[in-house]
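Example for tutorial group B:
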């Protein structure tokens, strides 16, 4: 097995494991690309394959666990659409102006700041907001989700922070972050694939797809089942350590 083959397997595993837990998939992918490929830019070809695999794993998981019942879709479809609007609007602006914010230093700071906010939302009752309306919670979480455009902050983490601040328990905060991931990951996939005139499917993309799919499905299953027991502190510690290591490395 060549070094390149190991890289693509590792890339898929990292994407699948980190997409739906609050430690930032984009930040991790940026790190391995910067360190291995020495480029501070996004590889849209890899991301397209990885996002499609992540989305497929998410949809299959939700279907297998009966989240796609008519009553559940009816209760959540509109509010998820509304909650996605802020990220879509910001994403269009960033894409139009071709803005990119990728560096190891930024990932380090975003990881640490996100960790602190995650800890506060999970452990401190002083900052809890009593919001009864589910629609309001989702729409406000949609604005939090925009923080994920900063590499290292985490889309799942930003949504979980919001729902924990709105007094949802850990499991439902995580499940709602999965719901909000459906349109965002789907839009990211279609946005990226439109940038390619000729999309050539080779063994590297297939490797990324397969490893991402199985890693994502396995991670979601475990994460949702154990999060109420273990809490978010392990992710907080990991994010802070990763951020400190990155900041030490660039300095």
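The residue assignment follows.
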């Amino acid at each position: 097995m060549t070094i390149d083959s190991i890289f693509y397997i590792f890339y898929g595993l990292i994407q699948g494991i980190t997409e739906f837990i609050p430690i930032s998939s984009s930040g991790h992918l940026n790190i391995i690309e910067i360190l291995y490929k020495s480029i501070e830019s996004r590889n849209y070809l890899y991301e397209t394959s990885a996002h499609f695999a992540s989305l497929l794993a998410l949809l299959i998981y939700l279907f297998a666990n009966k989240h796609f019942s008519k009553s559940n879709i009816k209760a959540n479809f509109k509010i998820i659409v509304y909650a996605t609007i802020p990220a879509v609007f910001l994403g269009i602006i960033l894409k139009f102006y071709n803005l990119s914010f990728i560096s190891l230093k930024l990932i380090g700071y975003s990881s640490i700041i996100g960790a602190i906010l995650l800890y506060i939302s999970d452990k401190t009752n002083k900052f809890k907001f009593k919001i009864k309306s589910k629609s309001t919670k989702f729409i406000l979480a949609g604005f939090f989700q925009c923080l994920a455009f900063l590499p290292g902050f985490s889309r799942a983490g930003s949504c979980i922070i919001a729902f924990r601040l709105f007094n949802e328990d850990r499991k439902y905060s995580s499940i709602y972050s999965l719901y909000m991931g459906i349109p965002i990951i789907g839009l990211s996939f279609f946005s990226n694939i439109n940038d390619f005139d000729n999309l050539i499917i080779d063994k590297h993309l297939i490797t990324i797809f397969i490893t991402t799919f199985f890693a994502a499905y396995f991670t979601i299953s475990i994460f949702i089942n154990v999060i109420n027991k273990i809490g978010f502190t392990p992710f907080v510690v990991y994010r802070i350590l990763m951020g400190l290591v990155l900041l030490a490395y660039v300095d």
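Residues 203-230 form the longest helix (28 residues). Compare this with the pattern of hydrophobic and polar residues in the output above.
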